Amino acid sequence: MENGEGEAVEAERRRAMGSLVSTCESIASGQFDDMEQLFAILANETLPTDIRELAETFASMVVQIEAREFHAHQLIDELRETQRQLEAAEQALRRENKDLKQRLKKLEVQFDQEQAEQEIREIAESEYFVDLQQRAKSLRQRFKQKD
């Protein structure tokens, strides 16, 4: 290999390494727009195998990162939808609870009236009360007879 040719290969190697470093820095900062540079390094068969393998490794890592981010975004969207559904369910339960409390108050009032009527019937039908009514009637008749 001639000296000029060796310098050209070395210059190409340095340019590829610089491109690889730049792309990796972008990837590390969360930007995946420079993937074309990685693919260009992979496709350049004049570059040493170790540089191409390194580019392939980084490309594989980017694909895995993007897949994880995609999955994470899907999970976040699902969680947001679940949260929206839970909030709607909570509102519905609050409305239903309010309605049930109002119905319960009506039933309590109705129950109290029914209970009071039942207690009055029990008292009115008791032997003691019937006896008291008889005595009161008898006393009224006596007082009428005296007049």
3D structure, described in words:
There is one protein chain. The chain has 147 residues and is mainly alpha-helical. It has one domain (3-146). It contains 4 helices and no strands. It has helices at 3-28, 35-43, 49-124, 127-146. The radius of gyration is 46 Å and the shape is rod-shaped. The model has no long low-confidence stretch (mean pLDDT 86).
What is the strand and helix layout of this fold?
Elements: H1 3-28, H2 35-43, H3 49-124, H4 127-146
Q: What are the secondary-structure elements, in order, as H or E?
A: HHHH
Count of beta strands: 0
Helix content: over 70%
Strand content: under 5%
Largest sheet: none
Rg for CA atoms: 46 Å
Alpha plus pi helix count: 4
Structural class: mainly alpha
Q: Low-confidence spans: pLDDT under 50, at least 5 residues?
A: none
Task: Give the overall pLDDT as a whole number.
Answer: 86
- Termini separation: 153 Å
Which descriptor suits the 3D outline? rod-shaped
The figure for the number of domains is: 1
Give a nutshell description of this structure.
This is DNA-binding NtrC family response regulator. With 147 residues, the protein is mainly α. The chain contains 4 helices and no strands.
Summarize this structure as a short list of keywords or feature phrases:
single chain, 147 residues, mainly alpha, DNA-binding NtrC family response regulator, DNA-binding, DNA binding
